[in-house]
Amino acid sequence: KQMISLLILIGVVVTMVFSKQLGVSLTTAAVIGALVAVLTGCMTEKQAYASIDWVTIFLFAGMMPIATALDKSGAGKLIADTVVGWLGDSPNPLVIAAVMYLLSNIMTQFMNNTATAALLAPLGISMAQSMGADPKAVLVSIAIAASAAFATPVATPPNTLVLGPGQYSFNDYLKVGIPLCIVGFVVSMIVIPIVWPFFP
C-alpha cells in the first residue's frame, strides 16, 4: 500500500505539472488521485471522508465570494482611491512606494493577490509618472506586497490548507504574519529604490 500510495502521489504531481498538455485541471487530477487511492484499497471510503477538512472548505466557500465582491463591486478601488487621495498632489516617490506597498499588503490579506496587484498597478503608474519618476519601483512594491499574504488564514490557499490540520487560530496568523509583513516592508523600502531608482 505504501508503494501504491507513492505511485499515486507521483502520478498526481506529474499530471498537475503537465496539466495544460494533458488537458486535465489541477482539481480533476487531485480527485482522480483520491479515487484511485480508495479503489486500490490504500484507504477506505470512511477514511477518505473523515480526512476532509470541512473548516477549510467552508472558509474557502465563504471568503472567496467576499474577495470577489470587493473586486467586482468597486469597494477595493474605493479603498485604494481614498488612501491615494490622502497623499496630496505632490508626494515624495518613496512615500508613494511605501503607501502603495502597505495598501497592497493590507488588501491582499482579504483579496486575491492578482486582483489586488491589477487594481493598484494603474494607480501606482499614474502617480509615479505624474512626478516624472520611473514607475518600476512602485510596481515592484505593489507586486511584492501583494505576494506577502501572511497575516490571515484566508490570504492565500496554503494558509487556509494548514489551518485545520495545524489547529491554528486567526490570532496565530496575526502573531506570525504581521512581523513578517513588517520585515518585508522594511527590506523592500531599502532594496527596491536601490535596484529600481525613481530617477535613473
TrEMBL record:
Keyword Transferase included in the entry's annotation: no
Record-linked InterPro entries: Cit_transptr-like_dom, DASS-Related_Transporters, Na/sul_symport_CS
Domain Citrate transporter-like stretches: 15-194
Gene Ontology, cellular component aspect: plasma membrane
Topology class, membrane: Multi-pass membrane protein
Keyword Ribosomal protein: no
Chief location category: membrane
Molecular function per GO: transmembrane transporter activity
Listed name of the protein: Potassium uptake protein, Trk family
Phylogenetic placement of the source organism: Bacteria, Bacillati, Bacillota, Negativicutes, Veillonellales
